[in-house]
Every structure is written in structure tokens, then in C-alpha cells.
């Protein structure tokens, strides 16, 4: 598994103290990703999609790539 950090575009559907529920588009099932593993740019802005930096292994496991 790669430890590389990649950037993916996601839609944030829900949030808890420890995770975000995200999906790359309407065709994919949403997945919870731990906040401790990712960074989301401009997450306080209201917009349809956000850029998320995530380890490549996690993005693959969550179906984001």
C-alpha cells in the first residue's frame, strides 16, 4: 500500500466529531473517512465539492479513486 498523499474531489454529506461522510460523485456509495487521516480544504465554505488530501491507501479503500 502506498503512503503517498493524493488530492481527491469529494462531496461532504455528513460530519461527526471524528469523521466525514464523503462521496466522489452521485454514482458511488458514501464512505466515512477519519478526520485524523485527511485534510479538507475550505471545509467551512458552502460549496458542492471540496478538495481532500488523503493517503492513497485510504482513498482506494474508500472508493474515492
Automatic annotation (TrEMBL):
* Name this polypeptide is given: Uncharacterized protein
Q: Which domain of life is it from?
A: Bacteria
